[in-house]
Amino acid sequence: MQCQDAIELFSDYVSGDMDKALLAAFEAHLQQCPSCREGMLGFRQVWADLDRLPSVEPPPSLHERILAKLDEEPLQRERPKLLSNWRQLWRPQVLAAAALVLIVLLAGLQFTPARHAALGLPDRLFGWLHPAQKPMPIPQPTVDWQANQNGQGGYLEVHFQVPATSSKGASLHFTIALVRLQPGLPASQGDKVVIQQGVALPGTLYTARIQLEQQPDPAQFSLLFSAGWTNDKTEKTQQLALPPLSNSQ
Amino acid sequence: MTDADEQRLIERSKEGDRRAFDALVRMHEKRVYNLAYRLSGNYDEAGDITVEAFLRVYQAINNFRGDANFSTWLYRIVTNVYLDRRKRQKNRQTLSLEEYVELEESQVTRQIEDPSPGPEELVEAQQRQELLQKAIESLPEYQRAMIVLYHVDGLSYEEIAEVLSLPIGTVKSRLNRARLALREKLEPIREAF
């Protein structure tokens, strides 16, 4: 492990957020590198100082100031757009249009997709009234191994394109676990270690990089990628094959 | 006060019940003020940020749908108020001079004023805290916000990612960078103690 790699891991080391193999490699580096050892001492001290920052007392007048400000500003509550113009809803043209929509809707609801077919009605006429609930797509990741130049370990990279969505506030939660395959058992029942968890935003190409001391052998290990959308109950777990061992090993 | 009590206060506030909103403010004002103080490093500005943040909460509470934690939503608003103010101040370009003067004065005061008598360690701890606060203030805004949310407010990486709308990997790596930067800034001071 190089100093630069070790420094990237300082926070994970203090918070105990490292798997055994990485921890061993990190501690081996600290043993042989006085500069990182010294750096780690200072880092722990800063962490401890940050955790001890005292809380400050707000001035007694603060509460009254907040309430006075609310009185000062006319209440302009953000409302859903349709409701903010609710008076316009009572205009005769709007009422007539609404009535027409209602009639079409009620008529359409009399038909099930089977009835459309029986009556020879094209699906595009009323098909939209019975839309199939499409779950949000879950990306299909690809996995790479980037060996370190010195031939010791490297990075496992899991890339996935998070689909864009018009749904506001949606994001993709994912968990990547390294699993030791056991003969005769499905991967989901092998010993697993979660190596990364996160939240990815729609429309982004996400790369999860996991530093490992050595390249995992695809004959012995596999990856499990579980992902689901925050606004959707879809959750999917996929088994990802690890890349074949590189020649250097 | 349980989560259910808080939820009831939020619902009543949505209906325009001022007493319920008053109670919500009471529940959260100290933590909001602390977050604002650690972000801005200035007591007066912390008060202004707190007032502005609660006004935004009051106006936007109908948008809070309850699928996120109320505190997380509130912290997002406070952080946004702070970031907006910084942007406005930077545009006016008066900030650097004011900060410089303020820093100079506080350093002079620190040298002249003899802190109240007490154990030496206590004084050192207090000086360290002041220097740490100055070091936090010198970080880029987003790193500063992350440091405060993690260490002062005790938010998890996931919650910070939600507050700042950033991927969790970015939060983790920027937080590590911020702590390393603080260590660099405080290193000469630590050696002096």
What characteristics describe this protein?
heterodimer; A: 249 residues; alpha+beta; Immunoglobulin-like; 4-stranded antiparallel beta sheet; 3-stranded antiparallel beta sheet; 22% strand; flat; B: 193 residues; mainly alpha; Rna Polymerase Sigma Factor, Chain: A; Arc Repressor Mutant, subunit A; 2 domains; 81% helix; globular
Low-pLDDT residue spans of chain B: 93-118
Q: Any idea what the CATH superfamily of the largest domain in chain B is called?
A: RNA polymerase sigma factor, region 2, helix turn helix motif
Structural class of chain B: mainly alpha
- SS content category of chain A: alpha+beta
CATH class of the largest domain in chain B: Mainly Alpha
Range of strand content of chain B: under 5%
Q: How many runs of DSSP E, i.e. beta strands of chain B?
A: 0
| Shape field of chain B | globular
Tally of individual helices of chain B: 9
**Distance separating the two termini of chain A:** 17 Å
Walk me through the structure:
- The complex is a heterodimer of chains A (249) and B (193).
- Helix content of chain A is 35%, strand content 22%.
- Chain A has 249 residues and is an alpha+beta fold.
- Chain A has a 4-stranded antiparallel sheet, with no helix packed on it. A 3-stranded antiparallel sheet of chain A has the order 1-2-5, with no helix packed on it.
- The two termini of chain A are 17 Å apart.
- Residues 80-86 of chain A have low confidence and may be disordered.
- With 193 residues, chain B is mainly α.
- Chain B folds into 2 domains: 1-113, Rna Polymerase Sigma Factor, Chain: A; 115-193, Arc Repressor Mutant, subunit A (Orthogonal Bundle).
- In chain B, 81% of the residues lie in helices and 0% in strands.
- Chain B has 9 helices and no strands.
- Chain B has helices at 3-14, 18-40, 43-60, 70-92, 95-112, 120-137, 141-152, 157-164, 168-192.
- In chain B, α2 (18-40) packs across α7, α7 (141-152) packs across α9 and α8 crosses α9.
- The longest helix of chain B has 25 residues, at 168-192.
- The radius of gyration of chain B is 19 Å and the shape is globular.
- The chains are: A alpha+beta (249), B mainly alpha (193).
- At the A-B interface, α2, α4, α5, β4 and β5 of A face α2, α3, α6, α7 and α8 of B.
